[in-house]
Structure formats: structure tokens, C-alpha cells
Design brief:
Layout lengths: L2 H12 L8 H15 L13 H11 L6 H24 L1
Length: about 90
């Protein structure tokens, strides 16, 4: 399986988590996903009254130096960590 296929598979798996990841984890995933699929941020930072959009933009901007492959790889690793954490808490 290639990197892109594994990335797409993990993007589907993360949607099936029974517990929603923390906001911090969601922002990490969002930033990596956007970097992997769109590339560097091309929009201006949202205003201070758009806190959610601003946080998402910041998360994306934080990983702008990563290549598409690096972002995909980091995203895959993060999803696997979340899936493992959920599996271990379910069996506890």
C-alpha cells in the first residue's frame, strides 16, 4: 500500500473513533490533513472573533514547512496513536 492510500485509509478510520479526540488532537489532525491535501496556507489569518477558524488556521500554519509526504506520514502516525489509545482504554 502506498503512502497516499494509507493516508486515505487512516482519514476514514479516524472518523470511526467512538470518543472524539481532544481539541488539541483535532487541530493537529486538521493541520496535517490540510498540509497533505492542499499544501501551505494560502489564506489570511481569520480575525479574533472567529476563534475556531483562527485555531484551525494556526494549526495548519504550524506545519507549513512539511512536504506532502511528511504531512501524510505524520497524520497516519497521529491517527494510529489515537486508535491505539482508544483500544487500550476500551480494554481497561
Amino acid at each position: 500500500m502506498g503512502l497516499k492510500e494509507e493516508f486515505e485509509e487512516q482519514a476514514e478510520k479516524v472518523k470511526k473513533l467512538t470518543a472524539s479526540p481532544s481539541n488539541e488532537d483535532l487541530l493537529i489532525l486538521y493541520g496535517l490533513y490540510k498540509q497533505a491535501t492542499v499544501g501551505p496556507v494560502t489564506t489570511s489569518r481569520p480575525g479574533m472573533f472567529s476563534m475556531k477558524e483562527r485555531a484551525k488556521w494556526d494549526a495548519w500554519k504550524a506545519v507549513e514547512g512539511k512536504s506532502t509526504d511528511e504531512a501524510m506520514s505524520d497524520y497516519i502516525t497521529k491517527v494510529k496513536q489515537l486508535l491505539e489509545a482508544e483500544a487500550s482504554s476500551a480494554s481497561a
